Amino acid sequence: MILSEVCEFIVDCPHSTAVDEGIGYPLIRTPNVGKGRLILDSVHRVSEETYQKRNARAIPKAGDLIFAREAPAGNVALIQDGQEVCLGQRTVLIRPDTNKVDAAFLTYYILAPEQQYRLLGSANGATVAHVNLPIIRNLDILLPDILVQKAVSKILTAYDDLIENNQKQIKLLEEASQRLYKEWFVDLHFPGHEQTKIVDGVPEGWKRKKVKDCLEYYINGGWGKDLPTSNNKFKGCVIRGTDIQDIKCGRFLDIPVRFHSEMDIVKRVLKKYDLIIELSNGNINNIGRTLMLNENILNISGKNTICASFCKLLRPLDYFHSLILYWEIQEMQSSGRLLPFKKQGANGINNFAFEEFLQHTLLVTEDKRIINVLDFIMQKISVLQNQLFLFTEARDRLLPKLMNGEIEL
Known about the structure:
Elements (H helix, E strand, L loop, with lengths): L6 E6 L12 E4 L15 E3 L1 H7 L10 E4 L7 E3 L7 E2 L3 E6 L6 H9 L1 H8 L12 H5 L8 H41 L11 E2 L2 E2 L3 E4 L4 E6 L13 E6 L4 H5 L8 E4 L1 H7 L6 E4 L1 E2 L8 E3 L2 H7 L4 E2 L3 E6 L2 H17 L6 E3 L5 E3 L1 H4 L3 E4 L3 H36 L6
Parallel strand pairs: 2-6, 12-17
Antiparallel strand pairs: 1-7, 2-3, 4-5, 4-7, 8-9, 10-21, 11-18, 12-13, 14-16, 14-18, 15-20, 19-20
C-alpha cells in the first residue's frame, strides 16, 4: 500500500512566493511546519484574495496534513481545529481518507524514523534536501487496525498537547515580563516609586548606563559553517538566529552540530547567562531577537557551543546585568523602541546597527525587590523549558516504538 491510496488527495502548493501582507490568514511556509504541529510564531500573513488564489487546488482544513518538501525537509504537521491557513511555497497538502487512516496517526507515522529515512534517503537538491511529490505519493505504508491507530495517536497527541501548553505558558510569561519591565523601567512605576525622588529623569539610587558598560565583552558569533578539515579540532553546536525562537519554545533538539577551529573556541564558547542577539534577517521584525543561555540549553547543546556569524555574543558583567539587558531588549523590540537600530544594507538584507546600540543607555537598579521578581520569572521560564525538553524527548522515544509495534496497546 502507498500513501496516495489512503488519502483523498495529495496536492502541491503554487510554485511562487507570497509576500507577507502583515494581516490576514497565516501563510504556512516550510519553517512553520513543525514535527506534528504548525509553528505560528512570527508567521507571515496574507489577504483573502491571496488566500483564495494560493488555495485554488484545495482549501486546507482541520485534519489535513501539511508536508515540508525542504528546509526542514520531511516535517509534517496536522492542521488543528480552528486553524485557517494558506499554503506557502514548497509545501504539500495531504488530505487523509478518514475511513482508512486516522489523520493524527498518519502524521506521526510519516514522522517516524523509518518513513523519514525512506523520504529523505530519496531526497535530492544541491543545497538543501528536497523531497519530490512522486516520492511522497508513493511512500510505502503499512497501517494497523484503525482502532490501534486511534489509540497510538491519542498517546502521542497527549504529549504534543503538553508541549503546546508549556509553550503557551512561556509566551505568556515573556509578554507579562515585558509589560512589567516597561512599567518599572520605562514608565518608572516601580515598587515604592511614590516615595522615590526623580533626579534628572533617574530615580534616586538608580543609574543610567550604556549597554557597552554592562558587558564584560562582546564578540562576533562563530562561523556558522563547516571549516576546512585541517582546522577541525573541536565539535559542538552552533546556535543561529533562526534557532532563537525555537530554543525559547523548547524546540532545541535539532541545533546543528559543526566543527570549529581552535581560534573560534577561545572566547566564543557560550556560558550560562550569555546573551545571543540576532543581527541580520530577511524579516526585519526578527532583528534583535535575543536569547539568554541557561543550564537547560547548555546541557543539551553541550560544550564547545558557539553562536553563528550573523549573531553577536554579549557577555554581561554578571547575572544581574544579564537580566536587565535581556528584558530591556525584549521590551524595546515589542514596543518598537528597537526600530532606530534597524537598517537595510546595500544588499537589501535587514541588519541591526549594533555599534550604535552599544551606546544606548538604560536604567539599572540594585533594588532586590525588583531583581528578585525578574529572576523569579526567568527561573519559571527555565523550568517550563526543561519540562518541554522532557516531554519532547519522551514523545520522540515512544514514537518509533509505537509505530513498529514494539509497545502493544
